[in-house]
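Q: For a teaching session next week I want to show students how multiple molecules come together into a single three-dimensional assembly. I've collected the sequence lines for a complex. Could you give me the predicted structure tokens for the whole thing so I can convert them for display?
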Amino acid sequence: MIITFYDQPIALDHMARVLNNPVTLNGNLREGCDIIAPEIRVKYSAALATKNYAYIPDFHRYYYFQKPPTIEGDILVLHLYADALYNYRNQIYNATCIAERSSSNYELMLEDSAVSAVAGYEIFSRSLPYEFRPDMGRYVLAVAGG
Amino acid sequence: MAVIETLTDETYDCEIVIESDGWSGEVVRFQYGEEEPQFQFDITGDVHGDGEYFSCTPSDGNYGYIRGSADIDGCYIGISLEHMGRIYDTDTEIAFSACGNHPYWQPGGAFGAKPTDTKLRVTCSEVYVRSLDCMVRGEPSTYENHALGRYFQYSNNVGIIFWRCAYVGSGQWTWRATIKTDLPIFRTDADLLEYCQSGGTVTDKILNIAEEPDPEEEYNKQFAYWYVKNRWAKNTRNPLSNMGSVVNYRFYPKRKGICFVKHTPTSAAPYDRILYQYDGYEAKFAEWGVDDDDDFIDNPGEPQTHYITKNISFGSNDYYTQFGWDTNIPLWNTQQDADDYFNGLKDITEADNYAYIARQDNTILNPDLPGTEIDEATAVRTNGMRFGYGVRLYEITNVELSNLMQEMYDPANVEDVIEGNKLVGSATINAISSVMYLPFPDLSEICELGSEANIKIGSWEAQTAHGKRIISNEGTIDCGSFFYNRVYKDYRDYEPYNLLFAVLPFCGSHQLTISKFLDRTVSCRYNVDVATGGIVCSLYADDILVDVFEGTCGASRPISATDNNAYINSIMSAITGASTQASGSVEGISNVVGGVGKAANVGAAAGGAAAFGATLYAGAIGASGIYTAYQIKNAVDNPPQIHRGSLAGNLGYYLNSKPTFLFFSKRTIRPEKELETVGYPSGHGGTVRSFSGYLKCSVINIEKFPGTAQELADIHNLLANGIYLN
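A: Of course. Below is the structure for the complete assembly, covering every listed component.
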């Protein structure tokens, strides 16, 4: 079985992956292995200890390191987890969805819970130019007659 | 120096123009224009310095030249940068780090000796700004970690422009951009100098000084935020001027998910173009930078930002650049549709993205709503009622009223008065129906007046008392108008983030529904019934009548003991909350409710009056004149004290005399970079591919999934928590 390890600098909540500095190992599985969360034991190598991403062609999956490798003697234990976001990127891109929040298709008239409002109100006023003049008024005298 | 603190924080469209003839020189300028923004520069902050010219000589490796004004203390008004280089703005100074510092630019380096006469000019050809704290926003932010430098990062770095320019050789091309700044912007250098020479006091040439925005301009600003993707379009509103090599503004749907601006090469010089958000097209794109072999690095991988190097083409000799900016340009599914639109055969409402465009403008009405859109001004009716024989109305002054009473009660006239009033009963005074005081120096504002005449009571005609006869009630007071601008241009423009109140003399204070008035011209008109003193205030939005409030502005003036008793009773009953008043009051002072208004003691007319005084919080003091902490808090958090009607007697005269609108506005905090980080609320549906940037889903449906249940659950969880598409 072939495993290729990479330095992958992109955060896992991003769709893109950049696979740098590949290191390939060829060997056989000696014990049972979970395809989604395999634990791979390999001979210790300083180069592998710093990797954070892997591809196992036999499983058709890319994996990220779920936690840092552990060392058992001269064995390096790699805790991998299938990177569903990357492995099924085409299915995800083609999936239909309803967006709760989005950077591209958004609605400004929806209330945004990320926006805070401070207490109180700022107050502004605007008066129209017309002014009543009770100080300069006139009387209306209504009388019977003609 | 006069510090201008009223500058708007608005975005101005401009163009970034690059002119280049190879290494011999480049000029970058921000050009003011009315184009849609496609590149956003935030220019904020200030440029510090002592107000003198200074320049950095090439010998120290820094190239910069700032032209400022010595007339302004502590800051530069105009700024000109020459020489190629990166630009920073620190807290205290501007530093320039030339590209020449980079090893690539050293003799023998990858690019040979640094150019000696290339230029970056940040002064605008038509707009001058005084600050260089530039922040490039938009797609270029993704290039920050390339080995050649961080020329495209979010930073105070405008090197992006001429960095590319330096590569491309001859030609000129343009990005339109926006400048967002709270610093003065001028259209010409002369304007700038005038401002400088005046010591900052002549501000009329500042483009972005606070003033009431033109409604149409505001309207147009709401456009231009929709992605052009995979559609045909013709930019009929804003041709891409100065984009010399562009011969066609259509967005070419070469492949799904990509759109390009088509170019025709003008020379053998290569063109580098940026591809954004490439998603799946199996073309060969070079990685960042220039490949020595001018070949494309095969990168069929996942969406990333790439560049098309100089020889790439798509089936012809034409060149393309992706055009992935937000736009309100109508998009069409076929070229024929686009041509038809351009030729006037199709309406914009048939465009593929019309719903987006219209929603930006908030012009789409729900077609299922009952009724039709109100789009006609409310007709102003006339009043045909006329006064004549039987009961006559006179406009008289205080002096004339006294003259009349004196003449009527003069013993020498008693017999004549009685004789002249036989028809109206035993008491002559009964012939006087009312004496009403109205707060207008000239009643012709509210009614039609005749000529001066002797006053007649019954058949008796006074010889010394004169008055103008009131012929009809025809007359409307136009109090003026203003345009009610949006502040946030989003949901915060409405309640409860903004509250709108109208304090209307004689008609009380009322909270108004913002939707009726927002983005419209608000006007206020009064009509008065001269016979009763009743008054009605009409509020219009774009000349459409939307609210009416009534009250009374006339105060009966007692002229007999009977009248006086009735007058006093009317006021007292109004103050104590009793019902109707002889003067026609709608509700009494006790209806001052809510918040600080409650502080005004019942019975303390002055306190009640203060609730409508010139300042809002005057009413909070109440009769005692003392604020309590609770009252202050209420005054802020529960702003409106609402009086629902007019006041009894002449008490309304003590209140405000101008129609006044009060705007209560919540100050809100939108997190910086919220859009990029967590997006805005959406509710839109579609394929994940149709979104970009941050995406958080409430629902996702993957129809065909070859993985395991655990992996599907992982995907659901990831999308429910939010991911970043590229």
